[in-house]
Amino acid sequence: SPRIGVLALQGAVAEHARALTASGAEVRTVRRPAELDGLDGLVVPGGESTTMARLAAPVRMMEHIREAQHDGLALFGTCAGLILLAREVADPEALAGFPRIGGLDVVARRNGYGSQQDSFTEPLDIVGLEEPLEAVFIRAPVVEEVGAGVQVLAESRGIPVALRAGRILATSFHPELTDDHRLHRLFVEIARDA
Ligand code: GLN
Fold it and tell me: Fewer beta carbons within 10 Å, N or C terminal of the chain?
């Protein structure tokens, strides 16, 4: 079965590990660059992108993940993870100059839904899934621009919220917080097709 890591610097690590295990992956938590060795895929979880970027900096974790992605590692970024994968962040000062992974050709705005709407749940139609998926948004980023090579898998209120570009999958919501593991299964399949 595919070997999938969950970046475990901060955030919703255990929930992703559970969903991935239930989806047939062999799962390991990843805190150091050496722990990327031998992985087919890596989940970059939700949490706080600024905290993760700061914790990653001393061991250059973001740069190591970027290199592994170039060498074929599949990536799944959720919420803060999407922010870390985005080509550009619209409010870069929040990241205080700490490196991110990049690689996904989108522009993301942190907390872009604003305080009125900071959390909500919504049934989403997602390309490739037969039934809607109940999506949990928590201080989610807003995807403001999407590059030509990026497929939009789902939109909410006219804003892209699920994206795929080759072996990169990203959602601005939290698919690990429900018992619906269809996106984790999709990611395990992407990682398997190495
Ligand atoms: N607002 C958080 C950030 O900017 C993301 C929130 C989340 O991952 N639930 O990193």
Answer: C
